[in-house]
Amino acid sequence: xxxxxxxxxxxxxxxxxxxxxxxxxxxxxxxxxxxxxxxxxxxxxxxxxxxxxxxxxxxxxxxxxxxxxxxxxxxxxxxxxxxxxxxxxxxxxxxxxxxxxxxxxxxxxxxxxxxxxxxxxxxxxxxxxxxxxxxxxxxxxxxxxxxxxxxxxxxxxxxxxxxxxxxxxxxxxxxxxxxxxxxxxxxxxxxxxxxxxxxxxxxxxxxxxxxxxxxxxxxxxxxxxxxxxxxxxxxxxxxxxxxxxxxxxxxxxxxxxxxxxxxxxxxxxxxxxxxxxxxxxxxxxxxxxxxxxxxxxxxxxxxxxxxxxxxxxxxxxxxxxxxxxxxxxxxxxxxxxxxxxxxxxxxxxxxxxxxxxxxxxxxxxxxxxxxxxxxxxxxxxxxxxxxxxxxxxxxxxxxxxxxxxxxxxxxxxxxxxxxxxxxxxxxxxxxxxxxxxxxxxxxxxxxxxxxxxxxxxxxxxxxxxxxxxxxxxxxxxxxxxxxxxxxxxxxxxxxxxxxxxxxxxxxxxx
Length: 510
Description:
- The chain is built from 14 helices and 20 strands.
- By secondary structure, it is an alpha+beta fold.
- The protein has three domains: 2-104 and 491-502, Uridine Diphospho-n-acetylenolpyruvylglucosamine Reductase, domain 2, CATH 3.30.43.10; 106-226, Uridine Diphospho-n-acetylenolpyruvylglucosamine Reductase, domain 3 (2-Layer Sandwich), CATH 3.30.465; 230-463, FAD-linked oxidases, C-terminal domain (Vanillyl-alcohol Oxidase, Chain A, domain 3, 3-Layer(aba) Sandwich), CATH 3.40.462.
- Strand 1 and strand 2 (16-26) form a beta hairpin.
- The longest helix has 17 residues, at 440-456.
- The two termini are 25 Å apart.
- The relative contact order is 0.13.
C-alpha cells in the first residue's frame, strides 16, 4: 500500500500550516488518520496529544518505511506505542506518527516466539510488540519461562526493555534489560541493526533502558529457564520499618536455593480500609486480620514466593518455607499464604485489572511516582513520607523493596543511585472517578513536592520511568552519563525523530 501524508510545519505561534507537497510511504500494514484517539492518551491519563496518524505495521519493514518517511519531512516525529501504559505521555507524538506495536505483533507473519540456542542456555526470540502475558503462555507450553518479569504483564517486550522491567525476581536475575542477549532494532536513521554485547554493542546497551531514544525494538532474544509448576505465595507484616528492611535485605543477599524466588514489599495503612489497609494484605478472604495489633499508623508487608514442581512433596515445601520464615522477625499471627499455579501467580495483577476496569478505576487518571532510592536514604524516606504525608494511603499500592546493584548491567542507559543495595519505591495511585476525592492536579503537585523534599534533604535517588520537561532535568538525571547519551542520540537518531513524548531532545528540521 502506498500511503500519502501531507507535510506539516509549525510557525512561531505553534499553529500548523499545511504545505502543498506530499511524500509517500510504502506500507504492507495499514495507516489510520481517523481512529487515532486511543493513541492520544495513555494509562496515566494526565496528558493528551493527538497524532496525525497511527500506523499498524505488518513487519519491521513498515517501521523502516515510517522512519524514513518522517526523515524526509521537515518536522514529523515517530513514537512507538506498546500497550500505552506510560504515565506522562511518553508514548505520544503530537501531530506526528504513532506506531502501534501491539499490531506489529499480531499482524506479523512471524511466530510470537522462536526457540533458539543462547549463550547462557535456553533463549527465545520474541516479537518486540508482544505482550509479556502472551510470551508467558507460549513459553510455558514448552515448559520454559523468562527469568525476570514485571508485576503487570500486559506490557510489550519492547516497552519494558526500553525502561528496565523490574519485579520481585530482579534481586536474583536483574531487570529484564539484564536478561536479553540480542536485539533487532530499527534506528532513527531507518537502519535495521542486529546488536548484542559482542556486535554493535553501543546500540545494544544504549537501547536497553534508552527510553526509545535510539531505536525501536522489533525483536529481542530473551533468556529462559525451566518453568516451575506451582508457587507458595506468602505475606508477613512488620510494625517497624528497620526490621522489615533488615529481613528483606537478608533474603535478597542469600545464595540461590537458600532464599525465596521472589521478594517484594509494600506499605499499608493500619486500618480496615479495603484499598489502603489490612484487606489489601490478606491472600484469601477466609484469612483473619486484626487491625488493632499495632498503634503505628502504617505497617509493612514483606511479600515472598517459593517456586516448586508438582512432584515436590508438600512436607518438603512446608519445611523450606518454615525454615526461612523462622529466621524472620515479623509480627506474630500475621502470616498469610496460598498455593497457586506459576501462571496464575505471574498473572495475579490481571485479576486486579479486570476488577478495576469493571468499576471504572482503570480508565481514571493514575498520577504514579516511581523511584530508585539508595539504602542510605530509605529510612529517611520512610520517616518523611510513609509515616507522614502518605500515612492515610494513596488509593493504591505503595511498593518498597530492595534490589542488588550487582544484578544490573551498568552499560545500559538506566541510571541508578549509589550503593550496593537500593530500593524500588512505587506510589501507584488510583483515582476513583465516581467519588469526590483529591484533585488529580493536587496529587501531581504532591509527587512534585516529594521530589523537592528528596532533593533538599540530599536523598540519593533516581526517577524510574523518568519524566522531565526540560534539558536541565535530564542532565541532572543522567549525571556523568549525559554526554554519552547525547553522543548515542547523535549517532542513531540525529534528527531526533523518535520518542518525542519523552521531551529529551527537540526534532531537528531536515
